[in-house]
Amino acid sequence: MKVKKIGIVSLSSGVLGEDFVKHEVKIGVERLKQYGIEVDFLPHALKGMDFIKEHPECRAMDLLSAFKDDSIDMILCAIGGDDTYRLLPYLFENNELANVVKQKIFLGFSDTTFNHFMLNKVGIKTFYGQSFLSDICELANEMLPYTRKYFEELIFTGRIKEIRPSDIHYKEREDFSENGIGVDMESYPNKGFELLKGEAVFGGKILGGCIDSIYDIFDNTRYEDTVSLCKKYDIFPKLEEWKGKILLLETSEEKPEPELFRKMIGHLKQYGIFDVVTGVLVGKPQNEIYYDEYKDILLGELSDKDLSLVYNINIGHATPRCIMPFGVDAEVDVKNQVIRFIE
């Protein structure tokens, strides 16, 4: 299965429609066209930050349209953001999402974590780990090789067979202006998957995402209605649905301070999730900020839990990024530094 047409949606931030990213968008569209892929921006995807912020119903409409349109075989998120939960009423109040979904590729990360939970709720398998602006529109002369390898596997085969660690990681780009075009990011050697505790080989279907977004489901510091809306529409899987699964967690570009990270892990612990999952996969923190602190917190908080804990996966907010299938049987083998997916 080769992807022929990609529908790009802005489900979170509307930055894609702003003038200051025009040069990035142009690079991304040209790259996709080189693969022979037709690119369709859904009607509101390019309306800009203010419009997108004020109109969650339009964002929801775009997602529904992308599922309804049979010519679109892959839905690609523009970027993350911070208020995707606001789509909930427009997708679930009258079963709007359930009525139109069909299995097609859906790819996004960061605050798109909410959309992954929404689609999981209606039985759709999704892919976590990359987005249009963050990855396809990379300002260097080509996409980051490790990132590109997984993106190409997905668009050419419709699946991801296995994930291995990247040999290198990058210091994140600070200048996204036109001056950054053709400029490579600084790279450093990468350590590979680290087994912090538990069995080196374990299995289960993977689900999860950005811990900052997941935390909003339990805490309304950022927005006063996240907890009530997420509860009303039952967006976070019940404990029995987590049984035997593998939880993926990664931290955002906000680089939560260790005490906040401890709080985030504490909320999930209270929920009981660490008592039922077989293992936890944790993404590399951006620029390796708080690398050791997060590790110590995870080990301390989960010391009494019978699960495998694997750290430093190349997913989420640190570059380069792999792509992780959700809802597919996975076997994690830290000894051989591989995560395999069995469909």
Automatic annotation (TrEMBL):
<feature type="domain" description="LD-carboxypeptidase N-terminal">
    <location>
        <begin position="6"/>
        <end position="129"/>
    </location>
</feature>
<dbReference type="InterPro" id="IPR027478">
    <property type="entry name" value="LdcA_N"/>
</dbReference>
<keyword id="KW-0645">Protease</keyword>
<dbReference type="InterPro" id="IPR040449">
    <property type="entry name" value="Peptidase_S66_N"/>
</dbReference>
<dbReference type="InterPro" id="IPR040921">
    <property type="entry name" value="Peptidase_S66C"/>
</dbReference>
<dbReference type="Pfam" id="PF17676">
    <property type="entry name" value="Peptidase_S66C"/>
</dbReference>
<dbReference type="InterPro" id="IPR029062">
    <property type="entry name" value="Class_I_gatase-like"/>
</dbReference>
<dbReference type="InterPro" id="IPR003507">
    <property type="entry name" value="S66_fam"/>
</dbReference>
<dbReference type="InterPro" id="IPR027461">
    <property type="entry name" value="Carboxypeptidase_A_C_sf"/>
</dbReference>
<dbReference type="Pfam" id="PF02016">
    <property type="entry name" value="Peptidase_S66"/>
</dbReference>
<dbReference type="GO" id="GO:0004180">
    <property type="term" value="F:carboxypeptidase activity"/>
</dbReference>
<keyword id="KW-0378">Hydrolase</keyword>
<keyword id="KW-0121">Carboxypeptidase</keyword>
<comment type="similarity">
    <text>Belongs to the peptidase S66 family.</text>
</comment>
<feature type="domain" description="LD-carboxypeptidase C-terminal">
    <location>
        <begin position="204"/>
        <end position="332"/>
    </location>
</feature>
<protein>
    <submittedName>
        <fullName>LD-carboxypeptidase</fullName>
    </submittedName>
</protein>
